[in-house]
Amino acid sequence: MPEDEDQQQTKDPGELALVDELGIEEQLSDPIYGGRGRLFSTAGRESPVAEFTETFLILHPPQNPFTETNFEDELTPSTSPRGVLLDNFGKEKKLPGAKYNNNPLYCLSKRDEQTGKHLVAWVDQNGKMGLLELDGRYITHDVAIKLRNRTHDGELGIFPEIKPIS
Predict the structure, then answer these.
(1) CA pseudo-torsion sign 122, 124, 125, 126
(2) Claim: this prediction has a pTM higher than 0.70
(3) Could you tell me whether strands 129-134 and 137-138 are parallel, antiparallel, or unpaired per DSSP bridges?
């Protein structure tokens, strides 16, 4: 046995790369592995190791030791200076075809406190952003899309129950 393999065999499991701890080989005969009382899957030694939990799928880097507390790769959405989400090209996200008083609707980074869904805003002639309210609640992205789909031209101003909040 080469010296490197002897050293890996004697290392503490917490110091081994996750692929080594699980015994993942170059040629996969079965992509499912068990370890630490958990279920893992991978496409090879260089691929991220997927951990299946009851509610999540967690991807672990294959070359690092297994850890439950290192979540450095948090995803944070990009936003414009005025709080609008940005798309992959760095442009503010508009809701396609949706408008209020002939002004486009934008998807904000701000979320509804109860549902966690993104709020939408419209911009008036002076460039001031305003939220929209329906039945005492701010309109979220999904609600705006449903309302847009109920119109022939996407104009939400036809609904008298929608109130602009500046």
Answers:
(1) negative
(2) no
(3) antiparallel
127-131 contacts: CB < 8 A, separation 24 or more?
128/166, 129/82, 129/83, 130/164, 130/165, 130/166, 131/164, 131/165
DSSP state of 48: P
pLDDT in tens, 72-115: 555 567 899 999 999 888 999 999 999 999 999 999 999 998 88
Phi, psi (5° rounding) for residue 2?
Answer: -65, 160
Contact 50, 40 (CB under 8 A): yes
φ, ψ (nearest 5 deg) of residue 148: -55, -40
